[in-house]
Amino acid sequence: MVLYIVGYSLTSIRRHLSFHLSMFQEFRQFLLRGNVVDLAVGVVVGAAFGTVVNALVKDLLTPLISAIVQAPDFSGLALSMNGSKILYGEFLNAFISFLLVASAVFFFVIKPMNILIMRSRKEPPADPTTKKCPECQSEIPIIATRCAYCTQTVV
User: Fold this and answer.
1) Confidence of residue 139 (pLDDT cuts 50, 70, 90)
2) Looking at domain 33-120, what is its CATH homologous superfamily?
């Protein structure tokens, strides 16, 4: 006896549900793979870090430079030649902003990370004291000329 629910047999409903469940499980595996999660975390952290760097440049470094140079905005600077204006002030603003962002990233991110990486590095591995015999693949002293296990001559 086959049970019918609104024109569908129970076996066809099970088959349909198992297909969708397997597709959902496959999609979940895709999302939980390391690459996708790492990329998502990287994008979120990168966006947050970009906000921090922009705030550092805009709120701290730019006012400091404008206090030293006594000109907070260079966009009004222009050079006039034969009736045409060369507006180099905007370029100067963008270039200074780039230098400030690059130096902030270098001194507050790259330099500390390099120091942390150097501290975490271990001593280089010691030179090997053994080698494998080409005939029997046994470990023998590196200065040996003959294998102690198979008596094969080792170069």
Assistant:
1) very high
2) Large-conductance mechanosensitive channel, MscL; domain 1 (1.10.1200.120)
